[in-house]
Amino acid sequence: MSSAPAPRSQRQPRGPVWLCLMLLLPTSASATTTNPGIKVWLTQGTLEFGRRFGLELLQLMLQREHELNLTGSYNIPLLGTLTYAVPRIHIHELQMNESALGFAEDVGVRLTVQRARVQLSADWAAQLGGVQDSGSVELRMQDVAVAAVLGVSEDGSGRPTVWSAGCDTHGTHLHMEFHRGYSWLYNLLAPLLQRTLRQQLNKQLCLVLHRGVDRLDTALKNMKVSTQLDTIAAIDHSLLAPPAFTEEYGDVALKGEIFRVGTYPQRPSAVPAVLPVALPVALPVALPVALPTPLPTTPPMAREPMLLVAVTEFVASSAAFTYFTAGALRRNISSGMLPRRFPLQLRTKSMEAFAPQLQERYPDQPMELHLWARQQPLLSCHPDALHGTLFGSAEAFVVLPNATRVPAFLLNIDANVTGKPTISGNRLGGTVRLTGLHITQVASNVGPVEVKRLETLLKFGLWLFGVPRANKWLQAGIPLPLPHGLSLLRPRLSLQQGFVLIATDLQYEP
Known about the structure:
Blueprint: H1 8-11, H2 15-22, E1 38-42, H3 44-62, E2 65-76, E3 80-95, E4 98-104, E5 108-128, E6 131-154, E7 160-179, H4 183-220, E8 226-228, E9 233-236, E10 244-245, E11 250-254, E12 257-260, E13 307-312, H5 313-325, E14 330-334, H6 356-361, E15 367-373, E16 378-381, E17 386-399, E18 405-424, E19 427-444, H7 451-476, E20 478-479, E21 486-496, E22 499-508
Antiparallel strand pairs: 1-11, 1-13, 2-3, 3-5, 4-5, 5-6, 6-7, 8-9, 9-12, 10-11, 13-22, 14-15, 15-17, 16-17, 17-18, 18-19, 19-20, 21-22
């Protein structure tokens, strides 16, 4: 009734480390659903967090040399036609004194800037009649207003795609100062050229923004849509649909499926089980309030969090399915691995009270126990706790002096547990409690096994040693796979019916 022992590297895989934490999240899945495993709500606080870094990125992007190819002509009475060309400009300074980032309904995000100031320089070439000239010019534009809309969608492969959905710039004050060549003449003519140059510069600023958005979209095409968790599993965090935007918030649906490394999950998911909870499309303006059905009331919050994340039962279920089908949920326990004070030792003499014939046939011999999950663990999420059932089998072997393993008996061991996940900083942890244990005999080569007495003693041993050790490890937690430099600030976790809700602020330190 037992398979051959797995190699050591497989007997103690790292996979169960992630699984145990994932099982402290709710578990359920779907074969055909497109409901998200993870849903994220972006609030105004998210935009404010992004605005600070986005403006720095925008300034770095603009404060460089840009192709301009600006040409034009101006008719000067008595002197003739002045034609000019400005091939490129270099932006030296960009100050955005008043800026705001908001949601653009059904499109993406909107950037508005008031009272900005731009300082730039450029080389120029000009011809007036038969006279050709060249030199440089310094320009300062003040009271610049910028209104730009960034469209956000999904490209069909689960990656975000962005585009410039609208742009308008307007600067009212332009000061020009020419250098070299007949600069004294052009400085006299500067007031006549200001209107034309101001219109051209307003247009060019938007073109520069368009090119920056195009570069961002190119970078997003190479974005990873999955992250490997360990040697067994990875998580698919691709977009299931284009993000939805209202004037107050953004709504992002991620697949959130744990899948086997080396395979790529098809869209939609192929994990069998129950339909996950259907999360709402909309989040109300003010928090905390009762989220739309079926999301219940969020915990009281003194201020709106930057980010709300709902992790549905689908995520943990796909983790359980992946590790179970990969054969990672197994462990071999030898006589020397149990604590000395554990009430049940792996020796035939210790087992005599439960299987008398075992000690008679193999007097005081060491034993080995092979444990494995015979079925995918099942859990459900409720506001009070996570409730789960673990389905295991255990085959006992007698280890003879020549290292031969003789099968003794096979048992099914089913356990009921409750757990509560916790979050602290960037680490996910939790606690578990054993609420029930049931043992049945499947087969025996050493006569009947008194499973009730064994069950009672095993409950006591797990209560005394097993659960405390598990909680010590779970409370330490594991780091969340966050981007470099990003951390959660004041995260709060609450259990809801069918999902776990995390409300948090964000902090970034390069």
